[in-house]
Amino acid sequence: MARPVPEDFYRYLSQIERTLDDPVYIALIKRWSQAGDWEADDPRVDELATAWADHLLANPSLITTLPGLRTRHDGAARGELLSHHGEDRKPALTRMTVLIEARLHAAGIEMP
User: Fold this and answer.
1) Is residue 100 exposed (0-12), middle (13-18) or buried (19+ Cβ within 10 Å)?
2) Among candidates 19, 47, 25, which has minimal Cα distance to 35?
3) For residue 44, what are the contacts with CB-CB under 8 A and spacing of at least 6?
4) Judging by beta carbons within 10 Å of its beta carbon (0-12, 13-18, 19+), is residue 95 exposed, middle or buried?
5) Got the DSSP string for 45-65?
């Protein structure tokens, strides 16, 4: 995280620290880590993506934004790297990310 967007690293860590007090967020993180072992077409992927999107929409301060990406000439490439790192090894997580981003986009939230 520090290498692609060093100017946002400590801001990101502070945001993660705040989420430790959110039991729903912690439960979602635990399920996310389990989902890495699922097949991409597992119906639990859709269920978990919906739960994530619903929680983020209800708590928009949890949506990670990295303002440094917007001001860099290579910000889009760095954002792609962060969003899609390792997805070739975890297809269920890739699909879940796409579903969550689509749901947020449909609600008018643009991800950097």
Assistant:
1) buried
2) 47
3) 35, 38
4) buried
5) HHHHHHHHHHHHHH-GGGS--
- Per the CB < 8 A criterion, the answer to whether 76 and 70 are in contact is no
Query: What are the tokens at 78?
Result: 């760095």
pLDDT digits (tens, 9 = 90+) for 15-64: 778 888 899 999 999 999 999 999 999 999 999 999 999 999 999 888 76
First-residue to last-residue Cα distance in the chain: 15
CA–CA dist 41, 77 (Å, integer) = 28
Model pLDDT for residues 51-108, shown as the tens digit of each residue: 999 999 999 888 765 555 556 556 555 556 555 555 567 899 989 989 999 999 999 9
Domain ranges of the chain: 6-106
